[in-house]
Amino acid sequence: MNKQMPRLEVCLSPALLHLYDTEGAAVVIIDVFRATSTIAAALYNNARAVIPVASIEECIELGNSIENSVTAGERNGHIVEGLQYGNSPSEYTRDFISGRTLVLTTTNGTRLLHMVKGADSIVTGSFLNLSAVCDFLLNSNKNVLLACAAWKDRFNLEDTLFAGAVVNRLKGSFDINCDSARAANALFENMGSRRPIELLQDSSHYRRLAAYGLEKDMEYCATIDLHPVVPILQGQELIIHQPNQ
Amino acid sequence: MNKQMPRLEVCLSPALLHLYDTEGAAVVIIDVFRATSTIAAALYNNARAVIPVASIEECIELGNSIENSVTAGERNGHIVEGLQYGNSPSEYTRDFISGRTLVLTTTNGTRLLHMVKGADSIVTGSFLNLSAVCDFLLNSNKNVLLACAAWKDRFNLEDTLFAGAVVNRLKGSFDINCDSARAANALFENMGSRRPIELLQDSSHYRRLAAYGLEKDMEYCATIDLHPVVPILQGQELIIHQPNQ
Predict the structure, then answer these.
(1) Which of A85, A122, B125, B135 has the greatest count of CB atoms below 10 A from its CB?
(2) How does pLDDT run across B213-245, given as a tens digit for each residue?
(3) Which B-chain residues 48-107 have CB contacts (< 8 A) with chain A?
(4) CATH number of the domain at B9-15+23-239, please?
(5) pLDDT in tens, A119-141
(6) Interchain contact B152–A (C-beta under 8 A)
(7) What is the complex's ipTM, to 2 decimals?
């Protein structure tokens, strides 16, 4: 163990976040199905910014006050009444979202993002931007917390598998003395030569969303490196991180 | 998925226990390093009962009021002042503990045990009694919650690996729609042909206890089926479950 290396930890649920010290750390918010996948898609396709908000009211209000904005959010697999679009990454093509501000309300991911205190940076991660996030963390040289959004505080497979993919790539460059990180890495290793979606098809969230006919969405969310950008929080907005700034 | 099968879930930390319904369930308390291993050892070696208590004061008080009792507990790897013995399963040989009542204070495991509400039964599990616990759960035909004691609410590898071993054996007989159970099983599967101790040597708790010279204790705790008994809570006491009663 090299004492000079920064620390990397994994938090498996927002209900455990208080156990981790995020002061000065690079924190990755992970909500694979589907908030952080949609954020990566929208920014990659040139959205001006994504504003994550917790409530539907706030989403409508911000949508009304921001020019050229799009309000979006789902509850139970359907677009919320009063909002314009859903939470599917494939909706946010370049033709549609370029130059616009996406005001997005989600439950698990947004709540977690707002819970993190004192971080040096807050970015969002998903399979769609796996390598970009790993490169960002390697370059940041900060302690890292990979924070899984989970589902109503319950551990979930898709966020943990993504955390495991990051741990697996970064383990030589960080001091990892965190059992959650070890278990996430084991989950990733156990996947072997299978694609992420093959593992995730037997997960609680997949079953829940498949009941709404969202299988294609989840296949999209499980695609590695389709949208190589790093969404980073600046004030209340997520924008693309520019490496040389 | 057979709707007739009872449900099996895994809770990875006491901080997540409120998310699970334990009403009428068989709950397995898991604190591999070392409370539930010591409990299995003491009862297998014919202790009359084990009384798990949260505080040192309560331990001393009960020890004074119960005839032929032994008080035990450690904090930071040392026997607590005022108590007689430690938290090492190898201390509780038949010669020593037979017929006596062990009053044991531990932090993580005891606290979790007292948090469980409305269960049909509360038993304790460890590698030392893996098969006995699995047989008990198969015979009980109740919903099952495998509850990991963790370490100060932090996810830990040893309790989750044990939960994974149980899931792996029972998955054909229970309805498992719980991502924690899936991940625990993947952790167990990823162990492959290695012995549990080989995996656990790279865990936070192993490192912590090894710093106190407790490597042999942990090797003991990782031995499968050395003490095939099922400790079950009756009132405030853990005693051996008798299958045909």
Answers:
(1) B125
(2) 999 999 999 999 999 999 999 999 999 999 765
(3) none
(4) 3.90.1560.10
(5) 999 999 999 999 999 999 999 99
(6) yes
(7) 0.94
